[in-house]
Amino acid sequence: MKITDRKLEIITIAAQLFKEKGYSAVTMRDIAQAMNIKAASLYNHIKSKQEILVLIIIEIAEEFTNVMNEIVNSNDLVLTKIERVIQLHIDITLRNADALACLNNDWMHLTDDELQYFVKMRTEYEANFRKIISEGVLAGELKNCNQEVVVFSILSTLRTMYLWYNKTKDLDAQTLQNTIATVFLKGVANK
Amino acid sequence: MKITDRKLEIITIAAQLFKEKGYSAVTMRDIAQAMNIKAASLYNHIKSKQEILVLIIIEIAEEFTNVMNEIVNSNDLVLTKIERVIQLHIDITLRNADALACLNNDWMHLTDDELQYFVKMRTEYEANFRKIISEGVLAGELKNCNQEVVVFSILSTLRTMYLWYNKTKDLDAQTLQNTIATVFLKGVANK
């Protein structure tokens, strides 16, 4: 997808409003007002709230999909692959937390082809992560515990990071990366 | 709170409906219909959808609060305390996943005193878990990494378990307990 500057401004502001008020409660008029333009001008750039939702969610879902594909097809060690997945989620969370909130809360408001496309990307993303974990167990890099629980323990933390990462001031990307990698790879217990 | 059998039936069915359609979209009529009774009979037992929401959420939040208080005030080792917190979330998730979905999705629809009471319980719950983690670091039982990241990595996984625990058939409470404890205490890497 190619996004113009004006569209980028629209989706940035819309994502904030969706997060604050919920997708269903926000109107095109609210978005125009927040941008300080007339609703008619907004329609010159974008045809509906639905189109905005698609731009926000599909853009970010495609980024997750593309980077995950690179990671899963790389020759890295599994531990490195997991670190790269953590890195990917931190990158997007720090850059675009509002859009992530929108993806998590409002994806079910997508329709038809876009909904199917999104669900397909999400399913493949999980399947790819599962593949990394099972490759790690096979190679002896990872402990042999219930793989679904491992997959969703890590993914739950990464997917909800946008909700809690800014509860602490001064929590930089590097500290997030190191701590999450330590927690999941080595555990919190001191041995 | 003391809940009659009839009220329990109402909140069980309402929690399912809230999960399927979203709190705002469900009417008292829908709830009566799902119970195969007239709306008028429903009002004999409960005065509003808001009262149902309070019953569902406050009940479960109080259970989390009470057990967490027991754990934090016990003389257990910190590693045991963390295992008991994991156990608490598994217990409630397996017993009452619909109510947990309601708590997570709809708590913001609580009003006035109930909203304040809920937010207070949630804040204290996080503060108590934070206390366990910092006690563990002080005692040398836990690694000294960023405590907020540790707190929310573990809580995110436990709080979203209701979304993923039943993606795998045959995932029993004991396997969940062992795997989550292993992941967070010892890490997934094979040493």
UniProtKB/TrEMBL annotation, chains A, B:
<dbReference type="InterPro" id="IPR001647">
    <property type="entry name" value="HTH_TetR"/>
</dbReference>
<protein>
    <submittedName>
        <fullName>TetR family transcriptional regulator</fullName>
    </submittedName>
</protein>
<dbReference type="Pfam" id="PF00440">
    <property type="entry name" value="TetR_N"/>
</dbReference>
<dbReference type="InterPro" id="IPR041490">
    <property type="entry name" value="KstR2_TetR_C"/>
</dbReference>
<feature type="DNA-binding region" description="H-T-H motif">
    <location>
        <begin position="27"/>
        <end position="46"/>
    </location>
</feature>
<keyword id="KW-0238">DNA-binding</keyword>
<dbReference type="InterPro" id="IPR050624">
    <property type="entry name" value="HTH-type_Tx_Regulator"/>
</dbReference>
<dbReference type="InterPro" id="IPR036271">
    <property type="entry name" value="Tet_transcr_reg_TetR-rel_C_sf"/>
</dbReference>
<dbReference type="Pfam" id="PF17932">
    <property type="entry name" value="TetR_C_24"/>
</dbReference>
<dbReference type="InterPro" id="IPR009057">
    <property type="entry name" value="Homeodomain-like_sf"/>
</dbReference>
<dbReference type="GO" id="GO:0003677">
    <property type="term" value="F:DNA binding"/>
</dbReference>
<feature type="domain" description="HTH tetR-type">
    <location>
        <begin position="4"/>
        <end position="64"/>
    </location>
</feature>
